[in-house]
Task: inverse folding
């Protein structure tokens, strides 16, 4: 049986969870190799059983790889592609896990050699904790996993990544890069910024000391996303500026509508709240 060499570049929450999930499947003949910058992170990944082997040398990690998974902050992906392009074997398939796709797809097309296929990826799963210690094998269970194949990607390469997604317990969802970035800006990137803004405006207020003693589950729920990885979240926004600003503007108009209803003591406020209540319940019923 031919050994399948899978290289995971970046062993944080997502990369570590992919490693744990694949190791949990116990696919015979698979070797999971992880790349990390720090030796201590390599030791943690090995002790958790997220990889079979850990490397702090990027070129060694991908040497002879059948499949490379880049699970790093999005703005580092261009440099990683440039560093590994010349040492990827013929027929290698590369994918990523970044939350934005347009820029990543452009970099892959410009940098990777013709004999290497690229399939953009984005698991719609995660949590506010980050780092290898937060990784868990079941993170992707029953979640959608967006896939955006490059124009020249072979059907075999697409099938390979789709099958990988299924091994993680997720469902492949094929989507265009621009559509992906616009949609996730509304349901993922905007909520993260709203969470951070709420923390900023309340904690900077002179009354925060007393206010913080009253903050309970509602505040905790709404500010959960502000605990996410600042580097990852900043990279997301900087590579999806137009879509993020579009949704910020739409939200600002809607919030202003609520402000006017409150300010005017308008009886339609209850109708607006009921409409939102009903819309959210309809979404929950489908999930």
Result:
């Amino acid at each position: 049986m031919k050994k399948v060499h899978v290289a995971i570049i970046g062993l944080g929450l997502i990369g570590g969870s992919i490693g744990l999930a694949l190791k949990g499947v116990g696919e015979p003949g698979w070797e999971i190799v992880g790349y990390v910058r720090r030796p201590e992170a390599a030791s943690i990944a090995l002790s958790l059983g997220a990889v079979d082997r850990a490397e702090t040398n990027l070129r060694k990690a991908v040497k002879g790889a059948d499949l490379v998974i880049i699970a790093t902050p999005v703005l580092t992906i261009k440099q990683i592609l440039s560093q590994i392009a010349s040492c990827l074997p013929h027929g290698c398939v590369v994918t990523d896990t970044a939350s934005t796709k347009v820029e990543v797809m452009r970099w892959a097309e410009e940098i990777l050699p013709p004999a290497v296929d690229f399939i953009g990826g984005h698991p719609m799963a995660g949590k506010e904790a980050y780092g290898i210690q937060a990784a868990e094998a079941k993170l992707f269970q029953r979640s959608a996993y967006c896939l955006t194949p490059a124009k020249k990607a072979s059907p075999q390469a697409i099938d390979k990544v789709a099958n990988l997604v299924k091994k993680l317990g997720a469902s492949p969802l094929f989507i265009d890069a621009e559509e992906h970035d616009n949609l996730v800006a509304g349901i993922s990137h905007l909520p993260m910024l709203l969470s951070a803004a709420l923390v900023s405006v309340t904690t900077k207020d002179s009354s925060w000391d007393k206010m913080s003693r009253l903050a309970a589950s509602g505040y905790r729920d709404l500010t959960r996303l502000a605990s996410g990885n600042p580097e990852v979240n900043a990279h997301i926004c900087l590579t999806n500026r137009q879509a993020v600003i579009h949704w910020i503007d739409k939200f600002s108009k809607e919030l202003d509508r609520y402000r006017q209803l409150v300010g005017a003591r308008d009886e339609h406020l209850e109708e607006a709240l009921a409409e939102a209540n009903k819309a959210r319940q309809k979404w929950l019923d489908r999930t």
